[in-house]
Amino acid sequence: MDRGLVDRIVEELAREGAPRSSADLARRWLGLGVLDEETADRVLGPVLGADPRLARTPAGWCVREGSGPPWDPGPALAGPFVAGWAPSRPEVAGVHRGGGEGRPYGVTLRGDGEARRVETRLGRAFPRPVIAVLPAVRVLRGYRGTGEPVRIAEFLGVPHVDRDGPAGRAEVLAATWEALVAELALEGVTTPLGLASLVTERREPADLAGRRFGPEDLDALPEGPGVYLFRDGAGAPLYAGQSGCLRARVRSYFTGMPRDEKDREIRREADRLEVREEETGLAALVREARLIRRLAPRLNRRREVRREPAPDGILWEPRAGGRGALLWVVRGGVLVDRVSLAPGPRRGPAAIERAVRALLAADVPPATPGEGEGREAASLVETWRRTHPWLPFLEPGVDGGPAEITARLREIGRGAGGAGPAGA
Fold this sequence. Notes:
Helix content: 40-55%
Largest sheet: 4 strands, mixed
Shape: globular
Strand order of the largest sheet: 4-3-5-6
Number of strands: 13
Distance between the termini: 28 Å
Order of helices and strands: HHHEEEEEHEHHHHHEEHHEHEEEHHEH
Radius of gyration: 23 Å
Oligomer: single chain
C-alpha cells in the first residue's frame, strides 16, 4: 500500500470522526468487498498499525488523539446489543435488541461483513463494534458444527424457540450470545477487548516443521486474490481453494483454531503449497472451479454452481487499488470473453470495444475452452453479480445497443478513479 493511500485514509477518518473497521476500509480503498473483518485486518493491520497517526480500537480504526488512551475497551458485554442475522440468501435480515444500559454494540454470526448486509437491507446503521459469535464459540468452546444459530444454541445448551425466518434466527443468536456473555463474566471477560485477548490466548498453534513450506513462505505470499493448492507428502492434490487475500487465507489454516475437520486434515497432511495470483476475486473463483475440475483434490467437494440462466451482459469488476478492471462477457449463457482493462486512456477504448463486440457481434466465437466449462464460468459470474450488487452489469436492450453500452463503460471507467479509460 502506497504512502499516499494511507494519507487519504487518515484524512477521511479525521473528517468523519468515527471509527471504521478493517473490512470497511478494505472495501472502500482496496476494492476488496469479499473480506471478513479478520482477513481484512491481516491485510491492513500491519500497514495502518505502523502509522503513528492511527489507532486500532475494538470499534475500528480512528485517528489518534493527542491525549488519553488510544485503546478503548469498548462497551460492556452485559449491556445492550443488536443481534443481526443476514445470510447471503435470502436477501432479508432480522435484528433483536438486548437489554441493559449503556452504549449498544453489534453481534452477528460471522462479523462485520454480515453487519454491512444488515445495514444495506434494512437501511439503517448497525452499531459498532461488531462481535462475531461463530469464531468465538469455536475457539472458546470447541464448537465444530455448521454456522447455524440453532445448532450453536443446542451445542451450548441454550434454551431457545426454533423459529423460521431471519427474525427467529436473530433471536436465537441473541439468546446464545447472552448465555455466552454470562459464562465469559465468570472468567473476568466483560468487554470486547477482553474477549479478543482471550480468543488470542486460546488459539491452537501449528507446527510446520518437516514440510516443504514454512512460516517464511507463508509470510511471503501475495496479499491479492488468487488460488492455492495443498499437496500431501506423496504429491497428490489435497485441497484447492481461492481467496481475495492469499496470504491471510493460507496462513489461517496454520494459525488459530481449525474451523472443521477439513481444516484439521489440511493442517495435519499438507506438505507442499502452490499458489497462483489472479487479477480479481471473481477471476480467482473461476480459476478455483477449473482447478477442482481438473485435479479433483481429495478434500474438495465439487462446487455446486447455481444453474440459473446467466443473462447476457458485461460485468465490470475493478481490481484492487484502482489498477484497472476486468470485463466479464456472458452471451448465450456462456462466458465468451474476459477482457483486461488497464488504467489510463490508451488501452481502455480498445478493451471496451473488444468486450462490446464479444457481447453483441454474432460472428465472434466463444473464447472458452469448452461449452460446459464456459457455462459453469457464466454461472459463477452470475453468482458473483448477485452477491456483489454494487458492481455494474450492462445488458443488451436494457442498457441499449453497442453505442450506448460503450459510452456507459467509458463513463464507469472515468468515475472509477483510474480503473478505466480516463478521458476516452
